[in-house]
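User: I'm putting together a teaching handout on how sequence relates to shape, and I'd like one worked example. Could you take Antibiotic biosynthesis monooxygenase from Chryseobacterium elymi, show the sequence you're using, and then write out its predicted structure as tokens right after it?

Assistant: Happy to. First the sequence, then the structure tokens directly below it.
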Amino acid sequence: MNLHIVALFKFNENYLMDAVELFQNLVKETRKEEGCLQYDLIEDKDNKGTFFLIELWESVEHHNRHNGQDHLLDFRKDASKIMESSAEVYKGFKIY
């Protein structure tokens, strides 16, 4: 069963270019992973510094493997230094 994820990130406005660079590498590398069906970065149109990752994984197991990848671990380490608050992550299965 496919796993859908929406992750919300809020970055300090002084670090927006840094955030975008971190996301670019994360998205590029994640899209290469087995089981990654969608991995898109969206910037909120009304709230500068607010970003969403829209993810679709072939299975929970594929996403679990993603969680151990170096590019994700590096992103988490570097992004945590410039984020306003912790990321909010929502996971679920399509019901309709």
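A couple of points you could highlight for students: The domain at 3-91 is CATH 3.30.70.100 (Alpha-Beta Plaits). Strands lie at 3-10, 36-43, 50-57, 88-92.
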